[in-house]
Amino acid sequence: METVRYIIDQVKPVSAFYTLEPMPYMLPDSPDSYLQLIKAIDRKQFAAHLDPVNMISSPQRYFNNAAFIRECFTKLGPYIKSIHAKDITILPELTVHLEERRPGQGSLNYAVLLQETSKLKDIPFMLEHLEKQEDYILAAEYVRETWKKTGISFLE
C-alpha cells in the first residue's frame, strides 16, 4: 500500500489512474479485497482494473460467474477504469484446473459482462493473452456478435 501511495504522490496524475491487476493467488483477488485496497490506499487516482477471469479461482465462482460479474460491477463500478476481456474453462482434472481461453471458447457469461460494462463511461475493454492475430480477430468478432445479440452498443 505504501508503494502505491508513494507512486501516486510522486507522479501526481490528473487524468490517469493507477490500478492493480487482480490475480487468483494474490491481492486483489476479489471485489471485496479490491475495495479494501481502494479504501486503505486512500488516493483519488487509485482505481480498479477489472479482470473477472483472474478472480475466478474456484468452482463456485466459475459456475456462478454471471452473479460474480454482477457483484464485481456492483462493488467496483465507480472505480473501474479498464477491463480485460478473455474467457475461462474448467478442465476435468482431479484438482481444480481453470484455464484462460479466447472469448467465446469458455464459460464466462459475456452477455452479462457486456451489459454491466455498458453502464460505465469511456472504459477500455481490452482483449489479452492471445497467441495469434487471428485469435484476436475471432475474439473481437465474438464480442461484437454478443453486443449485437444483447442490443448493446459501444464505441469502437
Summarize the structure.
Helix content is 44%, strand content 14%. It has 156 residues and is of the alpha/beta class. The chain has a 3-stranded parallel beta sheet. Strands 3-4 form a two-stranded antiparallel sheet.
Topology:
Layout: H1 2-11, H2 31-41, E1 48-50, H3 52-55, H4 59-63, H5 65-76, E2 80-85, E3 87-91, E4 97-101, H6 110-117, E5 125-127, H7 133-150
Parallel strand pairs: 1-2, 2-5
Antiparallel strand pairs: 3-4
Helix pairs in contact: 2-5, 5-6, 6-7
Describe the structure.
With 156 residues, this protein is α/β, with parallel strands linked by helices. β3 and β4 form a beta hairpin. The strands form 2 sheets. It has a 3-stranded parallel beta sheet with strand order 1-2-5. The model has no long low-confidence stretch (mean pLDDT 94). 44% of the residues lie in helices and 14% in strands. The chain has 7 helices and 5 strands. It has one domain: TIM Barrel (Alpha-Beta Barrel), CATH 3.20.20.150.
List keywords for this structure.
156 residues, alpha/beta, TIM Barrel, three-stranded parallel sheet, 5 strands
Secondary-structure-based class equals: alpha/beta
Please report which band the strand proportion falls in: under 5%, 5-15%, 15-25%, 25-35%, 35-45% or over 45%. 5-15%
End-to-end Cα distance, whole Å, is 35 Å
Globally, the shape reads: globular
Please give the order of strands in the largest beta sheet.
1-2-5
Biggest sheet architecture = 3 strands, parallel
Q: Helicity, in percent?
A: 40-55%
Work out the radius of gyration.
16 Å
Summarize model confidence as the mean pLDDT.
94
CATH class: Alpha Beta
Which CATH architecture is right?
Alpha-Beta Barrel
